[in-house]
């Protein structure tokens, strides 16, 4: 099981909060929490310095806190530094969560840019991908916002996210307006300059309620769904590896419908799947393959007092991994690593009722993450079906099993991975995402529709 909390939904923000002055935390308390953050990573994470040395990390820390010269600092300044430091030590599953009760009044009083965007291919402009106002249309290229280069703003926001480049871009794009809140030099109203003209669009921005509606409108609302498109192609949107029993029932109903309608072409879209319980993937694969496979070849468990506390308080761990292993983990000294590498852990699928005999493919992209990445890795490694799209948002060997806690002074919520999971092929040295069999960057579903109807491909 690999867990990941995206934290994009803003429903908790728009509560009845009265606008209040900016909140502060004492500099001493902020520095203490930063030290606690780093020390916790060192205790819990299997390898917090896998991409940046400790010396480099401390260099970044000293640079970013050098501005903390007064007795107190803004809470959002502390959160920004905490997010950036945790991102440096993370493969994507570990992070300091942006949401903190102390900054909610300030978040509510802020006005936000009404669009999302991502850097152009040449990296010179920010291309609008979604907008809530008519003056800004998708495809427009923005050069500056309030005189600041738009791509520099995006780059700073990317630093709040961990993971590989594609995942960081996708994650930043989703809530770009909110991340800009943490950049102090950018304040409303907003003067937006376009690459193609000398005209400047001046806007006041949108309030937090409008922002929540804007961001949430593009978020996936259901874990999984099925539809028949073009009369003869089945389309499963598998958006979350959540709720084993519910998914099993969903699959039974879905493949019963597929059989009744004589559907022989199936597209499974996991481009928005951020993970959850990897066991759901096994349920799905039994309907489309009889080949033996494995989603993972094992893991390394970092032992820590925080993980022991978390595992003991959640019965799911003993259920998932067995009481014997949990007893071993609890009796192992903190700081040691337990290896559970097993090359014999292959799944041999047994055909269920309404097994699918037709042509299939799976769509992947940079938001395919965690347990969904496990699924894509198994499909690619054992050639279970065809992958179409762009590379996934995570390496096949990556970190999982989050431990959560709050920092002592700020109350900021932190998630840290406690395991290192080895991919389907068993090579622990590989640091690559899952690449598609057919690379398609734009209009992926449309391409897949054409591909699946062409039996000669």
Structural features, described:
With 457 residues, the protein is of the alpha+beta class. The chain has three domains: 24-106; 112-206, PDZ domain (Pdz3 Domain); 224-453, 2-enoyl-CoA Hydratase, Chain A, domain 1. It is 33% helix and 20% strand. The chain contains 15 helices and 19 strands. The strands form four sheets. Strands 4, 5, 6, 7, 8 and 9 form a six-stranded antiparallel sheet that branches. A six-stranded mixed sheet has the order 10-11-12-15-16-19, sandwiched between helices. Strand 15, helix 14 and strand 16 form a beta-alpha-beta unit. The radius of gyration is 23 Å and the shape is globular. The two termini are 35 Å apart. Mean pLDDT is 92; it is low at 3-19.
Compile the SSE list and pairings.
Blueprint: E1 24-26, H1 27-44, H2 54-65, E2 72-74, H3 75-88, E3 95-96, H4 104-109, E4 115-119, E5 126-131, E6 141-145, E7 148-149, H5 150-158, H6 165-174, H7 176-179, E8 190-194, E9 200-203, H8 208-216, E10 224-229, E11 233-238, H9 244-260, E12 265-269, H10 279-285, E13 298-302, H11 305-312, H12 315-321, H13 323-331, E14 337-341, E15 359-364, H14 371-381, E16 386-389, E17 398-406, E18 413-422, E19 438-439, H15 444-453
Parallel strand pairs: 11-12, 12-15, 15-16, 16-19
Antiparallel strand pairs: 1-2, 3-18, 4-5, 5-6, 6-7, 6-8, 8-9, 10-11, 13-14, 13-18, 17-18
Helix pairs in contact: 1-3, 9-10, 12-13
